[in-house]
Design a protein that fits this description.
115 residues; alpha+beta; single chain; three-stranded antiparallel beta sheet
Length: 115
Amino acid sequence: MEIIGIGTDLVEVERIKAFAQKSGALKRIFSTEEINYCQARKNQYEHLAVRFAAKEAVFKALPFEGVAFKNITVINLESGRPQVVVKDVRANGLNILISLSHTRHYAIAQVIVTK
């Protein structure tokens, strides 16, 4: 397994909360599945923030440019483990490993892309 990219991002939850309260803002960045998942949670802004951090980290780690945040989706497996789906043909054959964590104030994501 060859590592071809690493990305990390740290986000303030309050910044994402302010962004999310703007009309139509969430739909520009997040998939419907991500929005529904986060809004069903007690601490929805922490979950939105960690997904935003994940999108930034994936964007930094990918070996190509030009993928829209809307085409990077973070889902959770039944076990709760996060998984990334990139809707871009250039991502075929790439394995994206992700780790997420958040508190009331900050959210962080780390990504390793392998081939």
